[in-house]
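pinned: reference chain
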Amino acid sequence: MKNWVAEAIRKINADFQRSADTHLIKLEGLNLKGIDIYLKDESTHPTGSLKHRLARSLFLYALCNGKIGENTTIVEASSGSTAVSEAYFARMLGIPFIAVMPRSTAQSKINLITRFGGRCHFVECPTHMHDEAVRLAQECNGYFMDQFMFAERATDWRGNNNIAESIFGQMSAEPHSVPHTVVMSAGTGGTSATIGRYIRYKGLATELVVVDPEHSVFYDSYQSGDRTLTSQRGSAIEGIGRPKVEASFQPDVIDKMLKVEDKASIATIHWLADIAGIRAGASTGTNLWGALQVAAGMQSRGEQGSIVTLMCDSGERYLDTYHNLQWVEKMFGDISVYTEQLQKFA
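pinned: its structure tokens
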């Protein structure tokens, strides 16, 4: 068992050594004098999203805690990107993987999971994912990875090339090298916890603003302090927002939260494609809309500085959904009011 675990950890670390860091893209030509906005492009990971970092950390955490052996089936509750990344690492280690996900998950993500050797197990509603994952793990004597529980503790927030250290390192040569604000959405809450802790650990003046989509309870919980809040439906923005307050969500390291309407998120990814030729997933739209609202506030106060937000995954996964205007019209209605608001920034 120990020999197998040691070899598994070696394989994961070797994969990390083969992987380059992700790009930090400055958005040019914005109508924001003295304010720079940057996108940390996490879509260039081997599995195409920010969740590659999380999956690596979760596997290492589970291996070092004695939870995974050579015959262990990994089970995860995921709407897509985490499952894609975990399927990649499970295949690397030669162990089975099952993703429990809503039936509405984008087909492109389902295809990626199966391509990496994983199996998809569907539920009708996102609120059923957790309990079904627990049941499946017990049934097959497997291990429930539980990203929503362990995301905030699996990553070393002090450094070790985590997302925060990467961002601040890449910003070091920019005109405003210490960002005024980092804007991040919450799925598990693990990434925002890592960034918020790192900011405090390094004694930085940067603020952490977390954005939350409709039908997610993170924002309301942050405002009220009530961690028992629940919602009867899941977020329409894949990968972020939750119908309950997950254990990895750490409100005490967040400086401010903003609620973002779904139509604004969708309008923003189409605006980004128009002004920069960058096609991103809808969660990036939530992030960037929030960054632009922070920038507008800075501009009104006569402040200058930099804002960093994340491109969580590529829009190539959503060509038949978020980037299909007919589908958008059917699912969300008219987004033109938000498109018009975005024009003032470019």
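why pinned: Residues 17-45+158-345 form a domain with the Rossmann fold fold (CATH 3.40.50.1100). The chain is about 45% helix and 15% strand.
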